[in-house]
């Protein structure tokens, strides 16, 4: 499966990225500067999430991306599965074409994804879910809060715990995005050149700049970058209990827990808690893959997901 140069889902962000000179407040939120944002969207509280559907196979699966991604980052994977599956690629709240919110809360994200699925892909019964990184935490939350919607669950390179790496990696990147004077750019090349001063890796810049859109003749960020930076520590967390009225709730369906051999987002010490919440979780590690497992090794990733989701 080939990837075009501008499909930058294959990003494994360096652990050595310089952090901004700021600290979170008592609520785990970072101060952020004012920047340009896409004002063309409709961010009503009940506005539907955006998604793209590929294929018309009898099995149904929804993919949920990670921080600063978008549903279409899974397009290559979806195309590979479309012979057997109807694949929905969902833009998370505050990402892509989905509405903005006032803050990150995995319980609220799970409920919103559940409402979205009930009105569409899961209208006739439970579906499979695949979530990567932040999206992996979202689908774990959904499975715990709305198990009736989930047939099988695939969690990709993330654990149900606080993930400091998620905060460490993105403070500098999101901060750089917010510091850019978008109104001064005439072309994407101008934006790329400006970002290169602080983000020298071309692949990482491409991943971030996929989120740049024109709004009334000027460039603007499509995701809710200011809020996402402010809530980075919340994004890296995993709320406990996930269901306040039932603190011992578990998801007892089949779970495939995929990790990259070169990633440290899943640790051996995470296994006991994962097994407590998801007793039927099976851990699989894909060689020569970092955090972006599905992009680093798309063939083995597709094989593992297809095998798991088609088991009787």
UniProtKB/TrEMBL annotation:
Q: Give the record's keywords alphabetically.
A: Hydrolase
Q: Which Gene3D superfamilies match?
A: alpha/beta hydrolase (3.40.50.1820)
Source domain of life:
Bacteria
* InterPro entries to which the protein is assigned, alphabetical: AB_hydrolase_1 (IPR000073), AB_hydrolase_fold (IPR029058)
What GO molecular function annotations does the UniProt record carry, in alphabetical order? hydrolase activity
AB hydrolase-1 domain residues:
62-297
Q: Specify where the region named Disordered lies, as residue ranges.
A: 26-46
Keyword 4Fe-4S carried by entry: no
- SUPFAM superfamilies, sorted: alpha/beta-Hydrolases (SSF53474)
Write down the PANTHER family for this protein, in alphabetical order: PROTEIN ABHD11
Annotated protein name in UniProt: Alpha/beta fold hydrolase
């Amino acid at each position: 499966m080939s990837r075009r140069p501008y499909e930058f889902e294959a990003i494994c962000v360096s652990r050595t990225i310089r952090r901004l000179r700021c600290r979170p407040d008592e609520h785990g939120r970072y101060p952020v500067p004012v920047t340009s944002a896409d004002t063309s969207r409709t961010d009503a509280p009940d506005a539907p999430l955006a998604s793209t559907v590929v294929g018309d196979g009898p099995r149904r699966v929804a993919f949920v991306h990670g921080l600063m991604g978008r549903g279409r980052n899974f397009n290559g994977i979806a195309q590979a599965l479309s012979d057997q599956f109807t694949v929905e690629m969902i833009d998370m709240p505050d990402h892509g074409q989905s509405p903005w919110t006032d803050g990150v809360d995995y319980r609220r994200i799970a409920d919103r994804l559940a409402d979205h699925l009930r009105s569409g892909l899961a209208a006739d019964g439970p579906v499979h879910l695949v979530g990567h990184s932040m999206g992996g935490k979202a689908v774990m939350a959904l499975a715990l809060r709305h198990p009736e919607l989930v047939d099988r669950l695939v969690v990709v390179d993330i654990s149900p715990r606080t993930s400091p790496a998620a905060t460490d990696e993105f403070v500098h990147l999101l901060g750089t995005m917010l510091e850019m004077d978008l109104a001064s750019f005439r072309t994407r090349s101008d934006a790329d050149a400006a970002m290169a001063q602080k983000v020298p890796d071309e692949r990482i810049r491409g991943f971030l700049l996929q989120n740049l859109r024109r709004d009334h003749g000027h460039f603007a960020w499509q995701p809710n970058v200011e809020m996402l930076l402010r809530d980075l520590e919340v994004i890296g967390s995993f709320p406990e209990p996930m269901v306040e009225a039932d603190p011992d709730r578990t998801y007892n369906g089949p779970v495939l827990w995929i990790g990259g051999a070169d990633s440290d987002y899943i640790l051996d010490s995470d296994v006991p808690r994962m097994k407590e919440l998801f007793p039927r979780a099976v851990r699989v590690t894909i060689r020569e893959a970092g955090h972006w497992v599905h992009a680093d090794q798309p063939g083995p990733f597709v094989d593992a997901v297809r095998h798991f989701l088609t088991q009787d």
